[in-house]
Amino acid sequence: MARDFAIAGALCLFASLFVIYLLRTGTDAVPRHNVYYGSDTDRVLANIIDRNSNYTRLSVHPLFGLVGLGIDELFQSARSMPLFIWKWSLAQANSFAIIMYSAARLWKCSSLISAVITLLGIGASSFVYWVTITDTHFMGGLSVLVLAILSAITIHSRVGKILRSGFALTIGFSIVITNSMAWALSQLTLSARAGIGVREFVANHWKRKWDYACGLLVGLGIILICLTAEYHLLRNPSIPGPFQGLVTERHFLGADDSSFYSFLAALTVVTPENRMWPFGALSMAGALIWALSRMRRDAAFIALFGLFGLVLHSVYDPGHAFLFSPNYVPAAILAVGIAVQNVNYRRTAIVALSVVALTLTVVNTMGYVAKRRAVAPQSDEPIFYGQFMKPHPVPASQVVRPADPPIGSDQ
If residue 18 lies in a helix (H) or strand (E), which one and from where to where? Predict the structure, then answer.
């Protein structure tokens, strides 16, 4: 236990120093709407610090309003917006290090493998490009890792398992609504065995139908309580109805102007601006398929969730798949670590993962700094958002400050 605390502390220290380097070398300015890989950076920050901002996107980030209130209360943006950005970035980095390492250890990975895959996660583009950015999907990835931790905890009581299922559903649903699929997959695979037939698989799960139903009801009850609390705390007319997301998200479905393989960016470990990104994404997808054949059956949902990300973003907003990668890549890396624990060539695999982690850290750091400097003219210093501390009406649009035309355009 003392060894784990020491390793986790060292990982947190490394993550903190790394984030400080990213903030100092790049910038802590907030990119404007859709400037940074299609992210709503301005809207997310406004939702955290300003209860009178536009909360339309709660349709797909259901409990982010409630989470944002907690973040603002904890880090006190009213005192200093630049300091708030730094605190939040450091908190996200430390949370990632602790949660990733803890998840790996609870799934019976050795302390060495757990540390290596945590470093791999820190070096991946899903961390480097998003940990300092005010967006929801980094926290969405953390919620999936927390769900994995809950699933790894041994509970013998039937009631305890039902309660765990309910809380896991709430966590999956909270930040990014489609992350609820991680909960659904965990329910389907927890009792699966290698080589089981379809008929037997269905029969085994049918026997537990009431447990699943009770877990679902508990989760929906907790979610309803949280949504009610969120509504009464925010008191904001822009909060969407319960099914509004089904309507508003339709225009993201189907083909767009992106290339036919753009959806692969949901699993990439380098930025799509790197020419090698398709290779990185395909390598991760291949690693997940390999992991499914090597990992524990009850952990299979972690790998399946990463593959689910590819399927989802092949039809949903494939042109911005990189924006959603923080939801899937951390879980994918965790799945690979769990699989590596069960192979005979473990030492070789650890060395290979260490080399990949180091390479990704260097490549992604250089790319991140260049990207942040490139979008600096279309970014606002954190102090700009201080104006939202003053009373004002709820804006009709979720865009805080429309972006300038893309750099180099004739518009």
Answer: helix 2-25
Say if CB 16 and CB 90 are below 8 A apart: yes
84 with 76: CB under 8 angstroms? yes
pTM: 0.90
Mean pLDDT per 10-residue run, the chain (411 residues)?
A: 93 97 87 88 88 87 91 79 90 97 95 96 96 93 96 90 94 93 83 56 74 92 94 88 66 66 91 90 94 86 94 88 95 96 90 95 95 89 75 68 50 41
* pLDDT tens-digit series, residues 90-100: 999 999 999 99
Helix (H, G, I), strand (E, B) or coil at 253: strand
Task: Report yes or no on 9 lying in a domain.
Answer: no
Determine the Cα–Cα distance for residues 263 and 85; give it in Å rounded to an integer. 30
111: amino acid identity, one letter: S
Tokens read off for 350? 């650890």
* Domain count of the fold of the chain: 1
DSSP secondary structure string for all residues of 363-409: HHHHHHHHHHHHSGGGEE-GGGGGGGGS--PPPSSS-SSPPPSPTT-
Confirm whether 328 is domain-assigned: yes
The pLDDT tens digits of the residues spanning 123-160 come to 999 999 999 998 999 999 999 999 999 999 988 898 99
Which range marks the domain in which residue 222 is found?
38-244+262-374
